[in-house]
Amino acid sequence: MTHISTDLTTAYAELVARGLSLDLTRGKPSPSQLDLSNAMLGLPGDGDYRDAAGTDLRNYGGPDGLPELRAIMGELLGIPTDQLLALDTTSLPLMHEVLVAALLTGVPHGDGPWRNVEGVSFLCPVPGYDRHFAICEALGIRMIAVPFTDTGLDLDTIRSLVANDPSIRGMWTVPMYSNPTGYSLTVEEVEALVAMPTAADDFRIMWDNAYAVHHLTDDPDPVIDVLGLAAAAGHPDRPIVFASTSKVTFAGGGVGFVGGSPANIAWIRKHWSARTIGPDKLNQLRHVRFFGDAAGVVAHMAKHRALLEPQFEAVLQILEERLRGVASWTRPRGGYFISLDAGDGVATRAIALAKEAGILVTAAGAPFPYGDDPRDSTIRLAPSFPSLDELRAGIDGLCTCVLLAQQERAAA
Ligand code: PLP
């Protein structure tokens, strides 16, 4: 039986005695990042309310969103303007709406409402994004977790599940700098996903490209033309693309986009038009004025990177110093998260110890459907929001908790 080192119990007692109060739970932009977009608060400005075509944007109408902004985002996402709608201020409501419409009415070229499908299910590569899973849970869509392998998606399992089970109507993907692993899909993986035979003809991929422009290196991962590849593979309607400016300009006060095949877009437009007479086009105009063009977005994201990179480097450095050899973690090239594998049966206890010490991290199990991490090993780290000093103190303290939880388990 292993004993718990007194050094570690002392270190933990000292940590608790410090009375920290640190919140590392969610991947929010920091105040300095939000400051980068402050100039937008004065836009479009008194008297500026017409788009390039001369339309008065103060009024109802323009249900697809501002063409100029859709063109800018379309260029960045590789989607033609007429296949990309700017409908809301964030993207999660669009994902929710798509699934509600699919359940109530069915999707284009489908066999009717998904609510009529016995045990309607979605594949969820894990670890993944908790809010995707929350949408499925809220709408009664059963989730089937498919763990990532060491090299990426478990395509063999995914292919075999979708080929044989017609109740599986879709899957979640965060194709670039995924939440929480930072993993980006390869072209080969995307080709496989859009081409694979599925028992359900109306299988959909919820392609949440939330981090398409959120690079942390000089050598960005590519935006893969999923709509083009899907059309070439004979499944043009399979992917539905989502994106937003939540972590570009203002979280909650940005613009949410949805893209897809002409059939999917017509279907989404129809459902959304029952809900609203038009989006906030003045906010969209503000974004157009602020960015100017796609190059303006890229330049703006370089400023985010300058703020985020030191945060990520600090976390990775502390993990390296404190946990090398006893845990593993991802080294993202973009996005907002690092995923720490603390070892089997360790995450819940380490997170509880951290909470006792005043360090809040994302709940154990959150990156898994139904909050169930079968190995109880994954801890999602969100480096963006705290100040660098708070982040260092929080991650260092968490490492103490991981080590203690590991030793407690070994001693049990
Ligand atoms: N998708 C992913 C993968 C995310 O990580 C997040 C936020 O953390 C969102 C979507 C939220 O997007 P929005 O603010 O556009 O609803």
From TrEMBL:
GO molecular function: L-aspartate:2-oxoglutarate aminotransferase activity
Keyword Transferase set for record: yes
Keywords for the protein's UniProt record, in alphabetical order: Aminotransferase, Transferase
Xref: Gene3D superfamilies: Aspartate Aminotransferase, domain 1, Type I PLP-dependent aspartate aminotransferase-like (Major domain)
Keyword Transferase: yes
Descriptive protein name: Aminotransferase class I/II-fold pyridoxal phosphate-dependent enzyme
Source organism: Galbitalea soli
Phylogenetic lineage: Bacteria, Bacillati, Actinomycetota, Actinomycetes, Micrococcales
